[in-house]
């Protein structure tokens, strides 16, 4: 079941113009889209993007009689190009709901979940060549350690990487549960008891396979250029790496000077383009987390185009 995170908080910040044009860059199961449409008038328009063709097809079927929505199979990192091809110059709101969707986690054949047995895949766009199988079975031990440290913040990265390389010398590591058992054998018993020991490794592999952080860094500058004055940028993140990128970007775009500290005179000629509306990110309530445990780590940041 798809449960959109921070639904009311997101849409109340996003829908500033009931007749405007909006972009849902990660439409997923369409939970935020459904709520947004309730706030918009018949002449409004929503562009709904997703790079996962399976998920997009299911959501398109749910909204097949909705004339205000254009469903587009594309990675949001190409947002400016997509809008240009549709002759859309400016929009009134852009939503980025980052990370893996409930549909992807709950699809047992996709390999995103460490609870279900499936081939190591984790591709959000199945047309991409690189899969989790490729990373696990072909990356060097040094590369694996770097990925687990950087994208998973996994303190036992060297032990897990060493175990992977040792095991794959005998045969390839093909499935998610094979990898889970390997991780359990590589970490101390106390680590296995605290939380699921594979969660950080799976996060790191997924980010590497889909270049998730690279896509976020590419799309954020495009969003500012595409927003009308007063338009809103709403970004929901689920881990510290994403949130750090979004926070720093918004802070930079809200400043009138980005020169290095210590310069006596400003030489950058930078102009503030955003006003940050959430000095601290909005987080789910206790009640929402009880109903939807996947919402626990969510953070919503909102900025207005000036």
Radius of gyration: 21 Å
Low-confidence regions:
none
CATH superfamily of the largest domain: Vaccinia Virus protein VP39
Reading the helices and strands in chain order gives HEHEHEHEHHHHHHHHEHEHE
The CATH architecture of the largest domain: 3-Layer(aba) Sandwich
* Largest sheet entry: 7 strands, mixed
Helix percentage range? 40-55%
End-to-end span in angstroms?
38 Å
Summarize the structure.
This protein is an alpha/beta fold and about 300 residues long. The chain has helices spanning about 5-15, 30-40, 55-60, 80-85, 100-105, 130-140, 140-150, 155-170, 175-185, 190-195, 200-210, 210-225, 240-255, 285-290; strands at about 20-25, 45-50, 70-75, 90-95, 225-235, 275, 300-305.
Give an overview in words.
The chain is α/β, with parallel strands linked by helices and 306 residues long. The chain folds into two domains: 7-97 and 212-305, Rossmann fold (3-Layer(aba) Sandwich), CATH 3.40.50.150; 113-210, DNA polymerase, domain 1 (Orthogonal Bundle), CATH 1.10.150. It has 14 helices and seven strands. The chain has helices at residues 7-14, 31-39, 53-62, 79-85, 102-106, 132-138, 141-152, 157-168, 176-186, 189-194, 199-210, 212-226, 240-253, 286-291; strands at residues 21-24, 45-50, 69-73, 91-97, 227-237, 274-276, 299-305. A seven-stranded mixed sheet has the order 3-2-1-4-5-7-6, with helices on both faces. α1 packs across α2. The longest helix is centred in the last third of the chain and has 15 residues, at 212-226.
């Amino acid at each position: 079941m798809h449960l959109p995170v921070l639904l009311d908080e997101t849409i109340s910040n996003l829908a500033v113009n009931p007749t405007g044009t909006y972009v849902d860059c990660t439409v997923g199961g369409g939970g935020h889209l459904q709520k947004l449409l309730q706030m918009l008038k018949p002449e409004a328009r929503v562009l709904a993007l997703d790079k996962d063709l399976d998920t997009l097809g299911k959501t398109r079927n749910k909204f097949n009689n909705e004339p205000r929505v254009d469903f587009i199979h594309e990675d949001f990192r190409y947002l400016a190009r997509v809008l240009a091809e549709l002759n859309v110059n400016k929009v009134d709101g852009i939503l980025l709901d980052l990370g893996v969707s409930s549909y992807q986690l709950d699809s047992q054949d996709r390999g995103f979940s460490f609870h279900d047995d499936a081939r190591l895949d984790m591709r959000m766009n199945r047309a991409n060549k690189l899969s989790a199988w490729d990373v696990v079975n072909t990356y060097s031990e040094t590369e694996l350690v770097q990925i687990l440290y950087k994208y998973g913040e996994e303190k036992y990265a060297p032990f897990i990487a060493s175990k992977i390389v040792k095991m794959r010398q005998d045969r390839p590591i093909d499935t998610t549960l094979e990898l889970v058992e390997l991780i359990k054998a590589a970490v101390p018993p106390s680590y296995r008891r605290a939380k699921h020991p594979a969660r950080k490794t799976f996060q790191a592999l997924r980010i590497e396979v889909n270049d998730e952080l690279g896509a976020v860094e590419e799309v954020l500058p495009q969003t500012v250029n595409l927003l009308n004055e007063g338009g809103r940028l709403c970004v929901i993140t689920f881990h510290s790496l994403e949130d750090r990128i979004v926070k720093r970007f918004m802070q930079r775009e809200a400043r009138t000077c980005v020169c290095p500290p210590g310069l006596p005179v400003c030489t950058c000629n930078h102009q503030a383009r955003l006003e940050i509306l959430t000095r601290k990110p909005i987080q789910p309530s206790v009640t929402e987390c009880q109903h939807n445990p996947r919402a626990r780590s969510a953070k919503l940041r909102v900025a207005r185009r000036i």
